[in-house]
């Protein structure tokens, strides 16, 4: 197929003004990340909702709904060509699962990792918390595969178990790494709640975080700014899965659309939505279903995941002849 494309390009190129043909074969700027279709992300949320409905109404650690969630994500990634590993751990007398997925290729000494927790609380399906981050990460990972992306650095994804019980899965994962393995991870970017119905556009603040975190913060902010969305820094502290990575000295970042916090009137001016109301009124409640999602927030945060991973991993600069209308 590629040869045909090249042939078409050559034919098309010969029809182009001479200037293009004589243009130096310099690489165009690094590949921009694609716009991730939010409908694809919503399809994963529907699958997770159906899993919860079929398994007692939740996707919590130690319950059938969690294992079914992990199997869903793993199945999609295996089919797409990822190298997946299920890491098991015990907690509260139940088996927990982390899913680690490596995209083959890229410099193994420079790992760019992104993750989010896949477990819900026991009282509900956890579609925003954290089906939203999990589904966004999954669709970005599938897009990497669809494009057969060949980034300079190695891409790794993680879906964590038992976050709701105290960041258990991600902590067990980081603790399982040798010091050398940890030093290869140049960034960990966390996505925990990205579709809150009364959304915020928070970016994890790098202050007080390991050196290198500010580059991640700036990349995330730039992703939103490119969409005309203003962001606010937030200090998530020990409330999500980046914490274990930060403790290990690994640069971290992340985005967050808000939980039980109340949207201010200034924020409502900036972001829309309702001042004086929680960002997510169904946080940790049974009403955290597929109807508890702002599609706009889900779309924007997911596109920023893609922007950030393409940027941090050094998606290849496109060779000039690989496309017809490249910026010269
Ligand atoms: N840690 C999230 C949860 O699963 O409850 C909520 C949260 C995420 C709170 C990020 C603060 C910051
Ligand atoms: Ca999108
Ligand atoms: Zn939660």
TrEMBL record:
The keyword Nucleus does not apply. The lineage of its organism: Bacteria, Bacillati, Actinomycetota, Actinomycetes, Pseudonocardiales. It comes from the Bacteria. It comes from Amycolatopsis magusensis. The keyword Transport does not apply. Its EC number is 3.4.11.24. This is Aminopeptidase S. Belongs to the peptidase M28 family. M28A subfamily. CDD domains: M28_SGAP_like.
